Amino acid sequence: MIRRILPRSLLGQMLLSVALALLVAQTISVVLRYRAEERRVENGLVNELAFQLVADPRIEYAPRGDQRSQRRERRRLRIERALESPQLQGESRNRERERALRGVLETQGIAVGELVVISREVSRDSYIMDGLRRGGRFLRNRWDPGGELVVAGMKREGEDQWLIARAPRPERPRSTMVGIIMQTLILYLVMVGGLYLLLRRITRPLATLTRRVERFGGVSDGAPPMEPSGPEDTRRLITAHNAMEARIAGLLDEKDVMLGAIGHDLKTPLAALRVRIESVDDEAERAKMAATIEDITRSLDDILSLARVGRPSDPLEKTELSALVSSVVEEYEDMGEDVALGDTERVALPVRATWLRRAIRNLVGNALRYGNHARLSLIRDNGHAIIRIADTGPGIPEEQIAHMTEPFTRGETSRSRETGGAGLGLTLARAIAEQHGGTLVLSNAKGEAGATTGLVAEIRLPL
């Protein structure tokens, strides 16, 4: 499931890797900045409470009127003297803030007897609410009834009264998070965008090279060599591929010339021998000689066909496969062979009919040789056209099926035509199927008791 979601291309995987790395880096940055901001806020809050507790708290409240009385009012609302602890029922103490505040006070030479730090809503603090009811705009701007405040109560050693300081809990600034988000977006645009342009310059010629390699079959299609493009490494790769492609095409051309010469040089003396054995008086010896010559000729044809199957000269043509299979069945019926036509469906595909006919004949011949009966059918299944040839022979041991399509591999060790030939029929059929983008599949047919009832050979061609 994960492999289906992840991109398969180099470009996609690199962009995804960079995007994930940036996401992790920015997440770490957000966490670190958030913690730093929390520490800054806490330090400022503790310092403000400590300043209030250290300053002279004995300023009495004065009537409103001038600015001096306003300042005294502000100081009066910040500090309070009481005989009891400011902690209300149900409130819990903040031990961490208490430790931090005690440390600041002791550095100022304050002998702290008892210290209490708690948090509560502004609306639950009667001292602040009373001040808001008689205060002005300044107090209303500073103290939000819907907000939160921190209350610190201190009793000095040797004193009975509590000094109570209050400070509003600052809201977490949104600008920090907005800045981080904007920074992340800019990083993504710059780094991912720049990396996309760079990787695109690398992967575009690689994609073109991949398509070229996939199309290359050793035959020059008239297309000129690829133009080197991209970074220097990619240019060198394309240049090396062009040279390798030219060498491979030249070697295959030489191979075709050599095979043509071998076929001509061998078939000509074989034909002469076929004529000369007619002068042999002994009919039995003459028949054996003729069979041997035919054996050599068929083996030579199979070898040459196998060598040329990867470089076909005839083009693909739209062919009705059901008609092709029926014609092969008719050929064997005319020769008196036990070949039957099963269920067929109309399927038209671009194929090389001569080669595909050769593959079907090889499989039918193999079925008749080992099973004395062949049944052909053509069906559609899972996006494939399947040409199936089934026999009633002994089948193939399961451990040998995977090796039966290798050259010169047979189910029994002899090389005589009566028992199976040179072992190139299945190999050639597999090569022809692969030439058309398909596969050759061999399997044993099983009866009700699990016993092998024959071999099933399938040529699977993609639709």
UniProtKB/TrEMBL annotation:
Any GO MF annotation of the entry: ATP binding
NAD in keyword set: no
Protein name: histidine kinase
Enzyme class: transferase
The Histidine kinase domain, residue ranges: 261-463
Short name of any one Pfam family annotated for the protein: HATPase_c
SMART domains cross-referenced by the UniProt entry: HATPase_c, HisKA
Location(s), subcellular: Cell membrane
ATP-binding recorded as keyword: yes
EC id: 2.7.13.3
Sequence intervals crossing the membrane: 177-199
The entry's keywords: ATP-binding, Cell membrane, Kinase, Membrane, Nucleotide-binding, Phosphoprotein, Transferase, Transmembrane, Transmembrane helix
Catalytic activity from the UniProt record: ATP + protein L-histidine = ADP + protein N-phospho-L-histidine
SUPFAM superfamilies to which the protein is assigned, alphabetical: ATPase domain of HSP90 chaperone/DNA topoisomerase II/histidine kinase, Homodimeric domain of signal transducing histidine kinase
Topology versus the membrane: Multi-pass membrane protein
Superkingdom, taxonomy of origin: Bacteria
